Amino acid sequence: MTAKSASWNRSRVATLTLLGGLLMLAAGPLLAEWSIARGSNVQGAATAAQAPRGTDWLYTLKAGEQLDTLVSELLKERYTGRQLMRHNQLTPDARLAQGDTLRIPLAWLKQQPDPARALAVSGNVGVVSASDGRQRPLSVNSLIRAGDEIVTRNGNATVELADGSVIRISPNSRLIFNKLTQYGKAGMVDIRLRLDHGGISTQVEPLLEGGARFEVETPSAVAAVRGTVFAMQSRPGMTALQVTEGTVTFGPHGQPQNIPAGYSASVDSASPGQVQIRRLPPAPQAESLPSSLQSLPAELRWADNGASRYQVDVFDTDSGEWLKSTTVSQTTYNLDYLDNGSYDIQVAALDARGIAGMPASQTVDIDLQARAAQLLSPETGTAIDDDMPEFSWQYRGNNEVARVEISGSKDFSNLIATSEWAPDSSALANKPLRPGQYYWRVVTEAGGNSVASSDARQFVINGTLPPVRILSVNYIDSQVRIFWQSVDTATGYLLQLAEGPEFRNIVKEASVDDTTAALRLIPGRRYFVRLKALSDGPLASRWGPGRELFIE
Protein backbone atom coordinates (compact mmCIF):
# COMPACT_ATOMS: atom_id res chain seq x y z
CA MET A 1 0.00 0.00 0.00
CA THR A 2 1.40 3.42 -0.92
CA ALA A 3 1.86 6.35 1.49
CA LYS A 4 -0.92 8.14 -0.39
CA SER A 5 -3.40 5.32 0.07
CA ALA A 6 -2.40 4.95 3.73
CA SER A 7 -3.12 8.63 4.29
CA TRP A 8 -6.46 8.20 2.51
CA ASN A 9 -7.33 5.34 4.86
CA ARG A 10 -6.37 7.22 8.04
CA SER A 11 -8.92 9.88 7.34
CA ARG A 12 -11.42 7.18 6.23
CA VAL A 13 -12.61 9.42 3.44
CA ALA A 14 -15.74 9.84 5.47
CA THR A 15 -17.57 12.10 3.08
CA LEU A 16 -17.43 9.71 0.22
CA THR A 17 -20.59 7.97 1.37
CA LEU A 18 -22.33 11.23 0.57
CA LEU A 19 -21.98 10.72 -3.18
CA GLY A 20 -24.77 8.33 -4.02
CA GLY A 21 -27.87 10.26 -2.99
CA LEU A 22 -26.48 13.71 -2.69
CA LEU A 23 -28.19 15.25 -5.68
CA MET A 24 -31.59 14.64 -4.10
CA LEU A 25 -32.01 18.13 -2.65
CA ALA A 26 -35.76 18.04 -2.44
CA ALA A 27 -37.59 20.83 -0.62
CA GLY A 28 -38.81 20.05 2.89
CA PRO A 29 -38.83 21.33 6.48
CA LEU A 30 -35.37 22.28 7.73
CA LEU A 31 -34.33 20.53 10.93
CA ALA A 32 -31.86 22.03 13.42
CA GLU A 33 -31.28 25.03 11.18
CA TRP A 34 -28.80 27.70 12.17
CA SER A 35 -28.79 31.36 11.32
CA ILE A 36 -25.89 32.89 9.43
CA ALA A 37 -24.62 34.56 12.60
CA ARG A 38 -24.65 31.36 14.60
CA GLY A 39 -22.94 29.50 11.80
CA SER A 40 -19.96 31.82 12.03
CA ASN A 41 -19.56 31.18 15.75
CA VAL A 42 -19.70 27.37 15.82
CA GLN A 43 -17.59 26.08 18.67
CA GLY A 44 -14.33 24.66 17.37
CA ALA A 45 -14.69 26.22 13.91
CA ALA A 46 -11.36 27.41 12.53
CA THR A 47 -10.94 30.66 10.64
CA ALA A 48 -9.99 29.96 7.03
CA ALA A 49 -9.74 33.44 5.54
CA GLN A 50 -7.58 33.61 2.46
CA ALA A 51 -4.33 35.56 2.51
CA PRO A 52 -4.67 38.92 0.76
CA ARG A 53 -2.47 39.97 -2.12
CA GLY A 54 0.95 41.08 -0.91
CA THR A 55 1.03 38.61 1.99
CA ASP A 56 4.45 37.30 2.95
CA TRP A 57 5.19 33.63 3.28
CA LEU A 58 7.31 32.68 6.29
CA TYR A 59 10.11 30.29 5.36
CA THR A 60 12.31 28.54 7.94
CA LEU A 61 15.81 27.65 6.78
CA LYS A 62 16.86 24.00 6.88
CA ALA A 63 20.27 22.62 7.82
CA GLY A 64 22.96 23.58 5.30
CA GLU A 65 20.62 25.78 3.25
CA GLN A 66 22.29 28.83 1.70
CA LEU A 67 20.79 32.09 0.48
CA ASP A 68 21.83 31.58 -3.16
CA THR A 69 20.26 28.09 -3.41
CA LEU A 70 17.14 29.38 -1.69
CA VAL A 71 16.83 32.18 -4.22
CA SER A 72 17.38 29.90 -7.25
CA GLU A 73 14.84 27.30 -6.06
CA LEU A 74 12.07 29.57 -4.81
CA LEU A 75 12.22 32.99 -6.42
CA LYS A 76 11.43 34.23 -9.90
CA GLU A 77 14.49 35.17 -11.93
CA ARG A 78 14.07 38.93 -11.53
CA TYR A 79 14.42 38.77 -7.73
CA THR A 80 17.80 38.53 -5.99
CA GLY A 81 19.16 37.56 -2.64
CA ARG A 82 20.03 41.19 -1.94
CA GLN A 83 16.38 42.17 -2.45
CA LEU A 84 15.25 39.35 -0.18
CA MET A 85 17.64 40.44 2.58
CA ARG A 86 16.51 44.05 2.21
CA HIS A 87 12.85 42.97 2.42
CA ASN A 88 13.68 41.28 5.74
CA GLN A 89 15.54 44.43 6.91
CA LEU A 90 18.85 42.53 6.96
CA THR A 91 22.20 43.66 5.62
CA PRO A 92 23.48 41.84 2.51
CA ASP A 93 26.32 40.27 4.52
CA ALA A 94 24.13 39.06 7.38
CA ARG A 95 24.72 35.38 8.20
CA LEU A 96 21.78 33.00 8.04
CA ALA A 97 21.57 29.75 10.02
CA GLN A 98 19.29 26.75 10.41
CA GLY A 99 16.03 27.77 12.06
CA ASP A 100 16.12 31.39 10.89
CA THR A 101 12.88 32.64 9.36
CA LEU A 102 12.62 34.77 6.23
CA ARG A 103 9.59 36.65 4.97
CA ILE A 104 9.10 36.04 1.23
CA PRO A 105 6.44 37.98 -0.74
CA LEU A 106 4.11 35.57 -2.53
CA ALA A 107 4.48 37.61 -5.71
CA TRP A 108 8.21 36.76 -5.73
CA LEU A 109 7.74 32.98 -5.64
CA LYS A 110 8.05 30.86 -8.76
CA GLN A 111 4.70 29.61 -10.01
CA GLN A 112 4.38 26.64 -12.27
CA PRO A 113 1.46 24.59 -13.58
CA ASP A 114 0.98 21.36 -11.66
CA PRO A 115 -1.30 18.87 -13.49
CA ALA A 116 -3.64 16.46 -11.76
CA ARG A 117 -3.78 12.74 -12.58
CA ALA A 118 -6.69 10.33 -12.97
CA LEU A 119 -6.34 7.52 -10.42
CA ALA A 120 -9.45 5.57 -11.40
CA VAL A 121 -12.14 5.84 -14.07
CA SER A 122 -15.37 3.86 -14.29
CA GLY A 123 -18.05 4.14 -16.98
CA ASN A 124 -18.47 6.97 -19.47
CA VAL A 125 -16.14 9.83 -18.48
CA GLY A 126 -14.61 12.45 -20.82
CA VAL A 127 -12.04 15.21 -20.47
CA VAL A 128 -12.33 18.44 -22.46
CA SER A 129 -8.90 19.84 -23.27
CA ALA A 130 -8.32 23.54 -22.70
CA SER A 131 -5.75 23.56 -25.51
CA ASP A 132 -8.02 22.52 -28.40
CA GLY A 133 -11.53 22.20 -26.91
CA ARG A 134 -11.79 18.55 -27.97
CA GLN A 135 -13.35 15.97 -25.70
CA ARG A 136 -11.59 12.64 -25.27
CA PRO A 137 -12.25 9.63 -23.06
CA LEU A 138 -10.59 9.95 -19.66
CA SER A 139 -8.39 6.99 -18.75
CA VAL A 140 -6.31 5.97 -15.76
CA ASN A 141 -3.09 8.05 -15.44
CA SER A 142 -4.39 10.71 -17.83
CA LEU A 143 -3.05 14.16 -16.89
CA ILE A 144 -5.54 16.97 -16.27
CA ARG A 145 -4.16 20.47 -16.76
CA ALA A 146 -5.39 23.93 -15.83
CA GLY A 147 -8.45 24.81 -17.89
CA ASP A 148 -9.40 21.20 -18.60
CA GLU A 149 -12.88 19.93 -17.76
CA ILE A 150 -13.98 16.48 -16.63
CA VAL A 151 -17.48 15.49 -17.72
CA THR A 152 -19.03 12.35 -16.22
CA ARG A 153 -22.19 10.81 -17.59
CA ASN A 154 -23.01 7.36 -16.27
CA GLY A 155 -19.50 7.01 -14.85
CA ASN A 156 -17.31 8.39 -12.09
CA ALA A 157 -13.66 9.33 -11.72
CA THR A 158 -11.06 9.67 -8.96
CA VAL A 159 -8.44 12.38 -9.49
CA GLU A 160 -5.28 13.08 -7.49
CA LEU A 161 -3.89 16.62 -7.38
CA ALA A 162 -0.16 17.31 -7.23
CA ASP A 163 -0.25 18.01 -3.47
CA GLY A 164 -1.83 14.61 -2.73
CA SER A 165 -5.41 15.86 -2.40
CA VAL A 166 -7.96 13.45 -3.89
CA ILE A 167 -11.27 14.29 -5.57
CA ARG A 168 -14.00 11.86 -6.51
CA ILE A 169 -16.39 13.06 -9.20
CA SER A 170 -19.86 11.52 -9.13
CA PRO A 171 -21.94 10.65 -12.23
CA ASN A 172 -23.62 13.40 -14.27
CA SER A 173 -21.12 16.07 -13.20
CA ARG A 174 -18.96 18.73 -14.80
CA LEU A 175 -15.82 19.90 -12.97
CA ILE A 176 -13.51 22.61 -14.38
CA PHE A 177 -9.91 22.84 -13.19
CA ASN A 178 -9.54 26.63 -13.30
CA LYS A 179 -6.13 26.81 -11.65
CA LEU A 180 -3.54 24.18 -10.74
CA THR A 181 -0.46 26.07 -9.54
CA GLN A 182 2.47 25.19 -7.32
CA TYR A 183 4.79 27.77 -5.75
CA GLY A 184 8.17 26.38 -6.77
CA LYS A 185 9.52 24.03 -4.09
CA ALA A 186 7.70 25.87 -1.35
CA GLY A 187 5.10 23.11 -1.07
CA MET A 188 2.24 25.61 -1.39
CA VAL A 189 -0.48 25.29 -4.00
CA ASP A 190 -3.17 27.47 -5.50
CA ILE A 191 -5.99 25.18 -6.62
CA ARG A 192 -9.30 26.55 -7.85
CA LEU A 193 -12.05 24.32 -9.16
CA ARG A 194 -15.50 25.07 -10.50
CA LEU A 195 -18.30 22.55 -10.06
CA ASP A 196 -20.74 23.55 -12.78
CA HIS A 197 -23.20 20.80 -11.89
CA GLY A 198 -23.20 17.39 -10.25
CA GLY A 199 -21.28 16.29 -7.18
CA ILE A 200 -17.77 15.78 -5.83
CA SER A 201 -16.24 14.52 -2.61
CA THR A 202 -12.74 15.48 -1.56
CA GLN A 203 -9.93 14.76 0.82
CA VAL A 204 -7.76 17.88 0.86
CA GLU A 205 -4.22 17.72 2.19
CA PRO A 206 -3.37 20.26 4.94
CA LEU A 207 -2.30 23.54 3.34
CA LEU A 208 0.74 25.53 4.43
CA GLU A 209 0.22 28.92 5.99
CA GLY A 210 0.45 31.99 3.78
CA GLY A 211 -0.82 32.02 0.23
CA ALA A 212 -1.84 28.37 -0.09
CA ARG A 213 -5.34 28.13 -1.48
CA PHE A 214 -7.91 25.44 -2.27
CA GLU A 215 -11.30 26.65 -3.48
CA VAL A 216 -14.30 25.00 -5.08
CA GLU A 217 -16.74 27.39 -6.72
CA THR A 218 -20.26 26.73 -7.99
CA PRO A 219 -22.64 29.11 -9.77
CA SER A 220 -24.19 30.01 -6.39
CA ALA A 221 -21.51 29.49 -3.71
CA VAL A 222 -17.83 29.00 -2.91
CA ALA A 223 -16.01 26.69 -0.48
CA ALA A 224 -12.48 27.33 0.81
CA VAL A 225 -10.61 24.69 2.79
CA ARG A 226 -7.28 24.17 4.54
CA GLY A 227 -7.27 20.40 4.86
CA THR A 228 -10.50 18.51 5.34
CA VAL A 229 -12.93 15.90 4.02
CA PHE A 230 -16.13 17.21 2.47
CA ALA A 231 -18.61 16.76 -0.37
CA MET A 232 -20.40 19.30 -2.55
CA GLN A 233 -23.29 19.18 -5.00
CA SER A 234 -24.43 21.82 -7.45
CA ARG A 235 -27.63 22.18 -9.42
CA PRO A 236 -29.31 25.28 -10.87
CA GLY A 237 -29.83 27.79 -8.04
CA MET A 238 -28.66 25.39 -5.31
CA THR A 239 -25.35 24.35 -3.75
CA ALA A 240 -25.07 21.89 -0.87
CA LEU A 241 -22.11 20.94 1.32
CA GLN A 242 -21.46 18.14 3.81
CA VAL A 243 -18.38 18.18 6.08
CA THR A 244 -17.20 15.00 7.79
CA GLU A 245 -13.71 16.09 8.84
CA GLY A 246 -12.19 19.52 9.55
CA THR A 247 -13.88 22.81 8.73
CA VAL A 248 -14.95 24.38 5.43
CA THR A 249 -15.56 28.08 4.83
CA PHE A 250 -18.70 28.05 2.71
CA GLY A 251 -21.43 30.38 1.51
CA PRO A 252 -22.50 32.83 -1.19
CA HIS A 253 -19.71 34.84 -2.80
CA GLY A 254 -18.41 37.34 -0.23
CA GLN A 255 -20.50 35.90 2.64
CA PRO A 256 -18.72 32.72 3.82
CA GLN A 257 -19.45 30.87 7.08
CA ASN A 258 -17.43 28.22 8.91
CA ILE A 259 -19.05 24.78 8.64
CA PRO A 260 -17.54 22.18 11.02
CA ALA A 261 -17.44 18.40 10.72
CA GLY A 262 -20.79 16.73 11.30
CA TYR A 263 -22.84 19.45 9.62
CA SER A 264 -24.26 20.18 6.20
CA ALA A 265 -24.97 23.56 4.66
CA SER A 266 -26.82 24.79 1.61
CA VAL A 267 -27.24 27.98 -0.39
CA ASP A 268 -30.43 28.51 -2.39
CA SER A 269 -31.01 31.35 -4.86
CA ALA A 270 -34.58 31.50 -3.51
CA SER A 271 -33.10 32.80 -0.21
CA PRO A 272 -30.19 35.03 -1.30
CA GLY A 273 -27.49 35.70 1.30
CA GLN A 274 -28.59 32.87 3.61
CA VAL A 275 -26.72 29.73 4.58
CA GLN A 276 -28.93 26.98 5.95
CA ILE A 277 -26.96 24.74 8.32
CA ARG A 278 -28.14 21.46 9.83
CA ARG A 279 -26.59 18.54 11.63
CA LEU A 280 -25.81 15.43 9.58
CA PRO A 281 -27.34 12.09 10.65
CA PRO A 282 -24.97 10.28 13.06
CA ALA A 283 -22.91 7.31 11.91
CA PRO A 284 -24.66 3.96 12.36
CA GLN A 285 -23.11 1.49 14.81
CA ALA A 286 -21.86 -1.24 12.49
CA GLU A 287 -20.72 -4.70 13.48
CA SER A 288 -17.09 -5.27 12.59
CA LEU A 289 -16.34 -7.62 9.73
CA PRO A 290 -13.25 -9.86 9.96
CA SER A 291 -10.17 -7.97 8.78
CA SER A 292 -9.66 -10.65 6.11
CA LEU A 293 -12.41 -12.54 4.27
CA GLN A 294 -11.65 -15.88 2.59
CA SER A 295 -15.19 -16.39 1.28
CA LEU A 296 -18.05 -14.28 -0.07
CA PRO A 297 -20.81 -13.26 0.26
CA ALA A 298 -20.27 -11.69 3.70
CA GLU A 299 -23.04 -9.93 5.57
CA LEU A 300 -22.51 -6.41 6.89
CA ARG A 301 -24.82 -5.48 9.80
CA TRP A 302 -25.48 -2.27 11.69
CA ALA A 303 -27.86 -1.02 14.37
CA ASP A 304 -31.02 0.81 13.39
CA ASN A 305 -30.61 4.53 14.20
CA GLY A 306 -34.07 5.57 13.09
CA ALA A 307 -33.34 6.24 9.43
CA SER A 308 -35.70 4.84 6.82
CA ARG A 309 -32.86 4.27 4.33
CA TYR A 310 -29.12 3.70 4.42
CA GLN A 311 -26.37 4.05 1.82
CA VAL A 312 -23.54 1.53 1.46
CA ASP A 313 -20.44 2.48 -0.53
CA VAL A 314 -17.50 0.28 -1.48
CA PHE A 315 -14.15 1.82 -2.47
CA ASP A 316 -10.89 0.29 -3.63
CA THR A 317 -8.40 1.28 -0.94
CA ASP A 318 -5.32 1.56 -3.17
CA SER A 319 -6.74 3.32 -6.23
CA GLY A 320 -9.60 5.16 -4.53
CA GLU A 321 -12.01 3.87 -7.18
CA TRP A 322 -15.68 4.06 -6.21
CA LEU A 323 -16.92 0.53 -6.97
CA LYS A 324 -20.44 0.26 -5.58
CA SER A 325 -23.10 2.53 -4.10
CA THR A 326 -26.33 0.94 -2.93
CA THR A 327 -29.34 2.29 -1.05
CA VAL A 328 -31.08 -0.20 1.26
CA SER A 329 -34.05 0.01 3.63
CA GLN A 330 -32.85 -2.80 5.90
CA THR A 331 -29.86 -2.80 8.29
CA THR A 332 -27.90 -5.50 6.43
CA TYR A 333 -25.94 -5.66 3.19
CA ASN A 334 -24.25 -8.59 1.42
CA LEU A 335 -20.76 -8.01 0.06
CA ASP A 336 -20.19 -10.17 -3.01
CA TYR A 337 -18.34 -10.41 -6.34
CA LEU A 338 -15.28 -8.45 -5.25
CA ASP A 339 -11.78 -9.19 -6.51
CA ASN A 340 -8.99 -9.92 -4.08
CA GLY A 341 -7.69 -6.70 -2.57
CA SER A 342 -8.33 -4.12 0.14
CA TYR A 343 -11.64 -2.25 0.36
CA ASP A 344 -13.10 0.61 2.35
CA ILE A 345 -16.70 -0.26 3.28
CA GLN A 346 -18.88 2.64 4.45
CA VAL A 347 -22.48 2.82 5.61
CA ALA A 348 -24.38 6.03 6.36
CA ALA A 349 -27.96 6.94 7.23
CA LEU A 350 -29.91 9.03 4.68
CA ASP A 351 -32.02 11.94 5.88
CA ALA A 352 -35.42 12.89 4.47
CA ARG A 353 -33.76 14.75 1.57
CA GLY A 354 -31.57 11.79 0.61
CA ILE A 355 -28.41 13.34 2.10
CA ALA A 356 -25.99 10.80 3.58
CA GLY A 357 -24.79 11.45 7.11
CA MET A 358 -21.60 10.63 8.99
CA PRO A 359 -20.34 7.23 7.82
CA ALA A 360 -19.31 4.16 9.74
CA SER A 361 -16.23 2.88 7.95
CA GLN A 362 -14.03 -0.18 8.04
CA THR A 363 -11.31 -1.71 5.88
CA VAL A 364 -11.60 -5.32 4.73
CA ASP A 365 -9.10 -7.45 2.84
CA ILE A 366 -10.58 -9.99 0.40
CA ASP A 367 -8.47 -13.13 -0.10
CA LEU A 368 -10.50 -15.69 -2.07
CA GLN A 369 -9.09 -19.00 -3.33
CA ALA A 370 -10.67 -20.70 -6.34
CA ARG A 371 -11.65 -24.38 -6.11
CA ALA A 372 -11.82 -26.87 -8.98
CA ALA A 373 -15.38 -27.37 -10.24
CA GLN A 374 -17.14 -30.74 -10.36
CA LEU A 375 -18.00 -31.65 -13.97
CA LEU A 376 -21.53 -32.90 -14.62
CA SER A 377 -22.12 -33.34 -18.36
CA PRO A 378 -21.24 -34.54 -20.92
CA GLU A 379 -19.77 -37.70 -19.39
CA THR A 380 -16.41 -39.08 -20.50
CA GLY A 381 -16.59 -40.78 -23.90
CA THR A 382 -19.98 -39.35 -24.80
CA ALA A 383 -20.74 -39.17 -28.55
CA ILE A 384 -22.77 -36.06 -29.41
CA ASP A 385 -24.66 -35.30 -32.62
CA ASP A 386 -25.07 -31.57 -31.83
CA ASP A 387 -22.17 -29.31 -32.90
CA MET A 388 -23.10 -26.85 -30.08
CA PRO A 389 -23.40 -29.10 -27.00
CA GLU A 390 -24.16 -27.72 -23.54
CA PHE A 391 -21.62 -28.21 -20.75
CA SER A 392 -22.62 -28.16 -17.07
CA TRP A 393 -20.75 -28.28 -13.77
CA GLN A 394 -21.09 -27.58 -10.07
CA TYR A 395 -19.09 -25.00 -8.12
CA ARG A 396 -17.22 -26.09 -5.03
CA GLY A 397 -16.40 -22.59 -3.86
CA ASN A 398 -18.33 -19.35 -3.33
CA ASN A 399 -18.35 -16.11 -5.30
CA GLU A 400 -16.66 -17.73 -8.30
CA VAL A 401 -16.94 -17.29 -12.06
CA ALA A 402 -16.00 -19.89 -14.65
CA ARG A 403 -15.58 -20.71 -18.31
CA VAL A 404 -15.48 -23.90 -20.35
CA GLU A 405 -12.31 -24.69 -22.31
CA ILE A 406 -12.33 -27.16 -25.24
CA SER A 407 -9.17 -28.58 -26.78
CA GLY A 408 -8.11 -31.18 -29.28
CA SER A 409 -5.42 -32.42 -26.87
CA LYS A 410 -5.58 -33.59 -23.26
CA ASP A 411 -2.91 -31.11 -22.15
CA PHE A 412 -4.98 -28.21 -23.56
CA SER A 413 -2.01 -26.86 -25.48
CA ASN A 414 -4.30 -25.91 -28.39
CA LEU A 415 -7.59 -24.36 -27.30
CA ILE A 416 -10.24 -24.76 -30.00
CA ALA A 417 -13.17 -23.05 -28.26
CA THR A 418 -14.19 -21.51 -24.94
CA SER A 419 -17.23 -19.99 -23.28
CA GLU A 420 -17.52 -16.54 -21.71
CA TRP A 421 -16.52 -15.93 -18.08
CA ALA A 422 -19.75 -15.96 -16.05
CA PRO A 423 -21.13 -17.04 -12.64
CA ASP A 424 -23.45 -19.55 -14.39
CA SER A 425 -23.01 -23.31 -13.95
CA SER A 426 -23.66 -24.20 -17.61
CA ALA A 427 -22.48 -22.80 -20.93
CA LEU A 428 -22.15 -23.27 -24.68
CA ALA A 429 -18.93 -23.01 -26.66
CA ASN A 430 -18.35 -19.73 -28.50
CA LYS A 431 -18.43 -21.50 -31.90
CA PRO A 432 -19.70 -24.74 -33.48
CA LEU A 433 -17.44 -27.77 -33.17
CA ARG A 434 -16.38 -29.81 -36.16
CA PRO A 435 -16.71 -33.57 -36.02
CA GLY A 436 -13.91 -35.11 -34.04
CA GLN A 437 -12.59 -36.00 -30.63
CA TYR A 438 -12.24 -33.27 -27.97
CA TYR A 439 -11.43 -32.68 -24.33
CA TRP A 440 -13.28 -30.25 -22.06
CA ARG A 441 -12.68 -28.78 -18.64
CA VAL A 442 -13.93 -25.90 -16.48
CA VAL A 443 -11.63 -23.16 -15.20
CA THR A 444 -12.91 -21.32 -12.11
CA GLU A 445 -11.71 -17.92 -10.93
CA ALA A 446 -12.12 -16.26 -7.54
CA GLY A 447 -11.00 -12.82 -6.50
CA GLY A 448 -9.70 -11.90 -9.95
CA ASN A 449 -6.35 -13.66 -9.52
CA SER A 450 -6.97 -17.13 -8.05
CA VAL A 451 -7.62 -19.82 -10.70
CA ALA A 452 -8.35 -23.56 -10.51
CA SER A 453 -8.91 -26.10 -13.31
CA SER A 454 -11.07 -29.22 -13.18
CA ASP A 455 -10.07 -32.60 -14.54
CA ALA A 456 -10.49 -33.09 -18.29
CA ARG A 457 -13.15 -35.19 -19.99
CA GLN A 458 -13.07 -36.62 -23.51
CA PHE A 459 -16.05 -36.48 -25.88
CA VAL A 460 -16.75 -36.89 -29.60
CA ILE A 461 -18.77 -34.78 -32.02
CA ASN A 462 -20.29 -37.19 -34.54
CA GLY A 463 -20.16 -36.55 -38.26
CA THR A 464 -17.69 -36.70 -41.11
CA LEU A 465 -14.26 -35.16 -40.96
CA PRO A 466 -13.78 -32.57 -43.71
CA PRO A 467 -11.70 -33.55 -46.76
CA VAL A 468 -8.04 -32.63 -46.74
CA ARG A 469 -7.04 -30.01 -49.30
CA ILE A 470 -3.51 -30.04 -50.76
CA LEU A 471 -2.07 -26.53 -50.60
CA SER A 472 1.12 -26.78 -52.68
CA VAL A 473 3.63 -29.14 -54.33
CA ASN A 474 7.36 -28.44 -54.57
CA TYR A 475 9.63 -30.33 -57.04
CA ILE A 476 13.33 -30.83 -56.28
CA ASP A 477 15.11 -33.14 -58.74
CA SER A 478 13.28 -36.52 -58.53
CA GLN A 479 11.70 -35.70 -55.16
CA VAL A 480 8.32 -34.06 -54.52
CA ARG A 481 7.25 -32.36 -51.23
CA ILE A 482 3.53 -32.00 -50.62
CA PHE A 483 1.88 -29.56 -48.17
CA TRP A 484 -1.77 -29.80 -47.07
CA GLN A 485 -4.27 -28.02 -44.86
CA SER A 486 -4.55 -29.03 -41.22
CA VAL A 487 -7.82 -30.44 -39.83
CA ASP A 488 -8.37 -29.33 -36.21
CA THR A 489 -9.53 -32.62 -34.74
CA ALA A 490 -7.44 -34.98 -36.84
CA THR A 491 -4.95 -37.27 -35.06
CA GLY A 492 -3.08 -37.90 -38.32
CA TYR A 493 -3.47 -38.27 -42.06
CA LEU A 494 -3.57 -41.17 -44.55
CA LEU A 495 -1.68 -40.54 -47.79
CA GLN A 496 -2.23 -42.57 -50.99
CA LEU A 497 -0.09 -42.45 -54.13
CA ALA A 498 -1.54 -44.05 -57.28
CA GLU A 499 -0.77 -44.31 -60.99
CA GLY A 500 -4.24 -43.22 -62.08
CA PRO A 501 -6.83 -40.65 -61.03
CA GLU A 502 -9.26 -43.45 -60.08
CA PHE A 503 -6.75 -44.65 -57.37
CA ARG A 504 -7.26 -48.31 -58.36
CA ASN A 505 -3.57 -49.11 -58.55
CA ILE A 506 -2.12 -47.83 -55.23
CA VAL A 507 1.64 -47.46 -55.40
CA LYS A 508 2.12 -46.25 -51.81
CA GLU A 509 -0.08 -45.76 -48.70
CA ALA A 510 1.22 -44.31 -45.44
CA SER A 511 0.05 -42.64 -42.22
CA VAL A 512 1.56 -39.20 -41.57
CA ASP A 513 1.42 -37.18 -38.37
CA ASP A 514 2.52 -33.89 -39.94
CA THR A 515 0.93 -31.76 -42.68
CA THR A 516 3.75 -32.35 -45.16
CA ALA A 517 5.42 -35.36 -46.78
CA ALA A 518 8.22 -36.04 -49.29
CA LEU A 519 7.88 -38.58 -52.12
CA ARG A 520 10.54 -39.92 -54.52
CA LEU A 521 9.10 -40.50 -58.02
CA ILE A 522 10.31 -42.15 -61.21
CA PRO A 523 10.86 -39.44 -63.86
CA GLY A 524 8.59 -39.59 -66.89
CA ARG A 525 5.70 -41.27 -65.08
CA ARG A 526 2.45 -39.65 -63.99
CA TYR A 527 1.22 -40.12 -60.42
CA PHE A 528 -1.74 -38.99 -58.37
CA VAL A 529 -1.80 -38.24 -54.60
CA ARG A 530 -4.68 -37.74 -52.13
CA LEU A 531 -5.18 -37.56 -48.35
CA LYS A 532 -7.85 -38.00 -45.70
CA ALA A 533 -7.92 -37.09 -42.00
CA LEU A 534 -7.76 -39.76 -39.31
CA SER A 535 -9.44 -39.73 -35.89
CA ASP A 536 -9.50 -41.88 -32.78
CA GLY A 537 -13.25 -41.39 -32.57
CA PRO A 538 -15.92 -43.29 -34.49
CA LEU A 539 -15.91 -40.85 -37.35
CA ALA A 540 -16.22 -41.40 -41.06
CA SER A 541 -13.52 -39.77 -43.16
CA ARG A 542 -13.59 -38.50 -46.72
CA TRP A 543 -10.74 -38.36 -49.20
CA GLY A 544 -9.72 -35.00 -50.42
CA PRO A 545 -9.38 -34.26 -54.13
CA GLY A 546 -6.46 -35.92 -55.92
CA ARG A 547 -3.46 -33.98 -57.27
CA GLU A 548 -1.41 -34.98 -60.32
CA LEU A 549 2.38 -35.31 -59.90
CA PHE A 550 4.91 -35.52 -62.75
CA ILE A 551 8.68 -35.31 -63.04
CA GLU A 552 10.20 -35.04 -66.52
Structural summary, described in words:
The protein has 552 residues and is mainly β. Helix content is 5%, strand content 45%. It is built from four helices and 45 strands. The strands form nine sheets. The protein has an 18-stranded mixed β-sheet that branches. Strands 29, 31, 32, 34, 35 and 36 form a six-stranded mixed β-sheet that branches. The longest helix is centred in the first third of the chain and has 9 residues.
Keywords:
552 residues, mainly beta, 18-stranded mixed beta sheet, 6-stranded mixed beta sheet, 4 helices, FN3_sf, FecR, Ig-like_fold, FecR domain-containing protein
Short description:
With 552 residues, the protein is mainly beta.
Q: What would the average pLDDT be, to the nearest integer?
A: 84
Backbone shape? elongated
The span between the termini is: 76 Å
Helix content: under 10%
In DSSP terms, counting alpha (H) and pi (I) runs of 4 or more, how many helices? 4
Pick out the low-confidence regions.
1-53
Main beta sheet: 18 strands, mixed
Number of strands: 45
The amount of beta strand, in percent, is over 45%
- Rg: 36 Å
Broad structural category: mainly beta
